[in-house]
Design brief:
About 40% of the residues lie in helices and about 25% in strands. It contains eight helices and eleven strands. Strands 1, 2, 3, 5, 6, 7 and 9 form a seven-stranded mixed beta sheet that branches. Strands 4-8-11-10 form a four-stranded antiparallel beta sheet, with no helix packed on it. Strand 1 and strand 2 form a beta hairpin. The longest helix has about 30 residues. Bound molecules: 2-acetamido-2-deoxy-beta-D-glucopyranose (2 copies). One 2-acetamido-2-deoxy-beta-D-glucopyranose binds next to strand 1 and strand 2. InterPro entries: GABAA/Glycine_rcpt, Neur_chan_lig-bd, Neur_chan_lig-bd_sf, Neur_channel, Neuro-gated_channel_TM_sf, Neuro_actylchol_rec, Neurotrans-gated_channel_TM. It is found in: Cell membrane; Membrane.
């Protein structure tokens, strides 16, 4: 009994001594986290002003994630700072920021940021998690950690590949609510490394802070409208690759199929091969395009283009089919007629040439010199009609999709 009481007293004395020594060494070398520090409670400012947590992002790299849905992986330094007056600054005030070991993060209160719209967040781990903590004389804690944020983007692909997608980065407070808690971007809140434009080869990007809304609307969240900071990344596809790889070749193949109009209609294998080959090439081109483009249940801009190209190629094929049919019909039927006219003409030969003309006009003899056969008429019509319709389509298509 006595021994126990004595031990208790000794322990009490030791505790008191320790706290006294902790208070005494407030200026230099003391514990940053005092023993009576309550990690569970936020450092609410005494004047009832909101507790400000400030963010900044330094973006080192943006990579398109190879997923069916468009997304980007943002390689960044994620920085958070807030003031916690309960901490002890372990230096003399003129020393400025002091770097401290990140193990302290297990002992102090931390804000609870949550990134909306995110598919995954990964810290970077080399020897240990890559992060740094500093504390300033005004008791501001500053944490910087390297991380990869896999951000989902909007997926409106109606105009693909002329679309631009917006990826919104929304950092919410998960639990702390307005007005006692607020989030801000730091002055240079969002810095993008200029080298990003070289790494993100398929896109033009613009990454901007969305001007401050104190709270964000959040459907059925608790608390209702959490404090937040917003930034938006707008990605616009670079067109050159699609132009050279898809639009130009497919347009050219449509033109190649028109070349068949200038080939004699009776070279059946030659013309058929030409038209069928360009049709098949267009179809296989479309299949390849579909495989590399996002999956949608509606027609994208590139699908419309390929569809019209294939349609023009099919028209060319049909036109040739009709020409062949007309030629065949002509071979069968009109043989008898000219014979009759010839007979008629031979009979009338003794009469004056003028009369011959009148008679033949009356009998409705086909004028063989100037009158075109139906298949020739069709060829002539198609030679004009298909290019003009393709041109019209282009006049409508390009302004509609490139805006
Ligand atoms: C956070 O930002 C606000 C205003 O932007 C500023 O007044 C405040 O001092 C900042 N807090 C910290 C800890 O940097
Ligand atoms: C931000 O505020 C503006 C009006 O002040 C509002 O139109 C906009 O929807 C708000 N944004 C969000 C994400 O709540």
């Amino acid at each position: 009994m006595n021994l126990e009481e004595m031990l208790r007293a000794v322990v009490m004395v030791l505790v008191v001594l320790k706290s006294v020594s902790g208070m005494g060494s407030d200026a230099v070398g003391g514990d940053i986290v005092a023993s009576n520090y309550m990690q569970e409670l936020a450092p609410w400012p005494e004047d009832n002003s909101p507790l400000l947590v400030n963010f900044s992002l330094k973006i080192n790299n943006i990579v398109e994630s190879k997923d069916k849905q468009l997304g980007v992986i943002i390689d960044c330094y994620f920085r958070v700072t807030w003031q916690d007056p309960r901490l002890n600054y372990p230096g003399s005030p003129d020393e400025g920021e002091i770097i401290i070991n990140p193990v302290i993060l297990d002992k102090i209160w931390l804000p609870d940021p949550y990134i909306f719209n995110v598919r995954s967040v990964q810290g970077v781990h080399i020897l240990k998690d890559v992060q740094g903590v500093t504390i300033s004389p005004d008791k501001s804690v500053f944490i910087s950690s390297a991380m990869k944020i896999d951000l989902a983007c909007s997926s409106k692909f109606e105009k693909y590949p002329f679309d631009s997608q917006i990826c919104t980065l929304a950092i919410f407070s998960y639990m702390y609510a307005h007005p006692s808690f607020a989030m801000r971007w730091l002055d240079r809140g969002l810095v993008v490394d200029p080298a990003v434009s070289e790494q993100l080869t398929n896109y033009e990007y613009s990454f901007n802070i969305i001007p401050q809304n104190i709270t964000c609307t959040c459907y059925a969240c608790i608390p209702p409208d959490p404090p937040c900071v917003l930034a938006s990344l707008k990605l616009t596809r670079k067109m050159m690759g699609y132009m050279l790889g898809t639009f130009l070749p497919s347009g050219l193949f449509v033109m190649v199929s028109w070349a068949s109009f200038f080939w004699p209609a009776d070279v059946i294998p030659g013309r058929t091969v030409l038209v069928i080959t360009s049709l098949l090439t267009l179809i296989s081109m479309h299949t390849a395009v579909r495989q590399s483009s996002p999956e949608t249940s509606y027609m994208k801009g590139v699908d419309v283009w390929m569809f019209i190209c294939i349609l023009h190629s099919i028209f060319t094929l049909f036109e040739y089919g009709i020409v062949l049919y007309l030629m065949k019909r002509q071979k069968v039927s009109p043989v008898s007629k000219p014979v009759k006219t010839h007979q008629l003409v031979t009979k009338v030969i003794p009469v004056k040439p003028q009369v011959v003309k009148e008679i033949s006009a009356g009998v409705d003899v086909p004028e063989e010199r100037s009158q075109l056969k139906p298949e020739e008429k069709l060829e002539k019509l198609a030679t004009w009609f298909l290019p003009i319709s393709f041109l019209l389509f282009n006049i409508i298509y390009w302004p509609y999709y490139i805006t």
